[in-house]
Amino acid sequence: MPSIPEDFRLARIAARAYTNVVLRYPNAFGCAVGRRISGGREAAEFGLTVFVTRKLPASMLRAEDLIPRELFVSDGAIRTDVVETPETRLARRLEA
Asked: Is the pTM of this model over 0.85?
């Protein structure tokens, strides 16, 4: 049985510990464990992906509104990855 990569394990711990914190940031609406994206390509490294409705340049945000680049858990640190994506909304089925 293959072992779980350490960065994946840490990302899962961070997701449990930080989801409610991360969702308080402006434009943030979700997070998940996933491979980080670097330069438009998927990296081998796992991290905590934070989904935002609009990704803004750091210069347009106050320091306290920046999603941290790393989150610390008891066993180490995990990097975050901020991804702009439309917020998914469930639609009600209309009866004819």
From this structure: no
Cα dist. 14→36, 54, 68, 69 in Å? 14, 23, 12, 13
Q: Does domain 6-61+72-84 have CATH number 3.40.50?
A: no
Local confidence pLDDT in tens for the 96 residues of the chain = 678 899 999 999 999 999 999 999 988 999 999 998 888 888 889 999 999 999 889 899 999 999 999 999 988 999 999 999 887 766 666 665
* Ordered DSSP codes for 13-71: HHHHHHHHHHTTSTTEEEEEEEEEEETTEEEEEEEEEEEESS---GGGS-GGGSPPSEE
